[in-house]
Amino acid sequence: MKLKNFLCLLMAFCMFVSIIPINVSAIDKETALTGDFVYYIETYEQLKNHALIAQADCRYILSDDIVQEDNSNNLEVVISSGAVFNLDLNGYNIQRSTKGNDCALFRIQSDGRMIINDTSVSKTGGCSFSEGYADYTKAVFYNEGGELEIFGGYYEIYSPFEQGDCSIVRTTSGYTNIYDGTFDSSSAWGGDTISVGHNAYVYEEPQVVIFGGEFFGKYGNIEVTPFNNYLSYGCLYPSVYVLGGNFYITKDNENSGFCYCNNGWGRVVVAEGSVFYKC
Fold this sequence. Notes:
mainly beta
């Protein structure tokens, strides 16, 4: 009987010891700010929370489609200063529609960094943003002084109430690199795919480099419109460098064109040539 009791106690002890590492590992994964961890995202709230404090050695992967509709403000997904948000769409979609005054789906703040891709075999991952009443500039990605890198995915913007100017990627400061993906602004008011220099209170001179992708604009594809505040910072040139990609215009009128700069402070450089005005 004593032997039986001893064996029972020994088994109970072994089971207790074996449970401890599992619980510690789970806690570390949920609370660690650093470490080679993977986080799966299935809600808009998780998306917002992770983006705000994202770490460079963490990967963030969608595990479900996210549809978010509201009538409120301040619900943009913000990549804050110092955060590094490496987001894998994983074949899923983020769809946001708002009647508030939010002007972006993703906002990259000064010294923040966002990397986005779709590593799924199906390549069906994407982001859609529809903003209603605000008479402001609006975008799927709003880079205001950070770094944005897009390696793939499908991105579109709608403007059902035709207010303000819309684009897929708006860079007012900092750096944006586009390597691949499909960008469709043909259903948006204004309808540029790439926009540079609006309302820029300069942290870093805005610069966009396009290596590849498919671009569908409504009236144009690239617009560079720096305001006079650039003059107070010296000789700054907001620039777009086109090294690849296919560009299409979906509606033909007198303002249609591949690119447009409204003054000599902007640059669109295509291969080895510069285009300063509408072409």
